[in-house]
User: What shape does this take?
Amino acid sequence: MKSRLAQFSALLAPCHAIALQAKAGRRLSSLFALLAVAPLFAAPAAPATAPAPALPPAPKGDYVESFDTQYNNITVQREGTRVELRARSRRGEFYESVVDVADPTKLILEYSRTVYAAAYFQPEPKRALIIGLGGAGVHRLFATAYPDALLQTVELDPMILALCQSRLEFKPTAKTPVTIMDGRMFVKRDTTKYDWILLDAFRGSYVPAHLKTEEFLRECAARLGDQGVFINNLHEGTELFYADIKTMQKVFPQVVLLNPPGSGNVMAFGVNYKTPVITDPAKWPDPAVVGKRLFASVDLAEVKKELMPIPTKEVAAAEVITDDFNPAELLNVIKTNNEAKGR
Amino acid sequence: MKPLPLLPVFSNASLPFPVALLLFYPLVVVLGMLSMGFQMLASRLLSPHYGSTIVEWVWLISTFLAAFSVGSVLGGWISSLPTARRGWSQIAIAAVGIASLAVTACYSKGMLDWIELRFIPDVAQMNDQGSADMNTAVFLSCMALFFVPVTALSSFGPQCVGWLAARGTPPGKASGVVYGVSTVGNIAGVMLTVFKLIPNFRVSHLLYGWLGVAAVSLTALICLMRCPAKTKML
Assistant: This one.
């Protein structure tokens, strides 16, 4: 395709030169002046995908570093074996991931434990997709607990991958590949059927609006295997939360919410089938069986207690987010009544 | 070429210059609103296809700036034509702008689907040689959907300057006033689109709104600019 742009440029360049020399009057000069700006379009642009950029080695001992990337303002802080990856956003910094580099099975952030409730609905994932790498907090346990499974990750920001590799000691392998591209573009083109799909593509405090729509969730649903589960990391406290749930309900016949205490996150699980029923926790399988691979990192019986009812009244009043009607950014700054009263 | 007949309502007798100005400036504001508000709608059209990458914004902003540039040159050329040819040229460029907006309003999704999958058919295409294909796809999408209507809209800027200057306003002052007022329209267009229109209306419906407002405002502006240049600036 580069050659097509080059051809376009080559076609217009002589026109420009001729225009400069033209003595046929202002009319011709004006016409060619119009064409003269066209080669601007043929200028090479930044690549859409790029390999992870090289970073200097991590400092020795404890440290705090800041990085301005193409899409994020990132802080990396290490204390002992604990490494935090935080993104600056509206109202301060938000955790992308917190990991213990000495123990890959240790999950520190509450929501990352709740992700593994997916084992209730699909206990033997063979293929998983995570949209949003963050600090690869979820990845380490998955790769250890399900060593034969494929864990595909898609991440937009190449610097996030570089930081994971150099600061958080996450090394992608053939079983844990990372693709640098927009998550929606990946899902639309990838033909793999996944058992788990986790949407965790936060930029600080928000997920890009085009990853919130009914059409995108349908694309994800189409990539799920028969017993596959879609996991959506939501933030409660704004009107967007209700719109997110309503949009998920439009796509998935069954939706379950788990609310890790004190995290501000709500993990929404959606499946493509109506039976067996997953909305009744009494019918969930034995956590000791489905969680046997998860070491001591996740107590699925405790996670089960995080089940929260769907806020039916608020969801009924919310609108489904679509590609055509997408006020996600605006909804994300409108606090819910409870949140506003608490401030 | 036969001169265009003047509409009686815009003859000097029935439309004093101050009244004409009261119509003129709001129309300049509306054209400014249409141009930059359209850029916000354009980003909404593109993001389901190309994500929210900086590559998308590079091409989107460049396309609009190029359209402003080409439109300014084109408008300057039209404003220097003899009266009869100028009238027909104004109608022609307005018709092209409205027709291209109609194409964007009616066929944008189909066109974007086709361009996206034609140039970036699979994941491997993105990983191995994706940058050029991504750039080409976004570039062609922007050109096909946004370049022509924005060029047509922005071509009326210099014509508005010419209209004011022909009525006694010093050219420099006319230029400053028109572009100042138009930029106010740009700001209003962005704010209105982002904070009021996108949260409350479907983008597809808004595009039809853009089409209707462009048709009405360009028609009114052309009629206004057909006023004979007899009145002096007050």
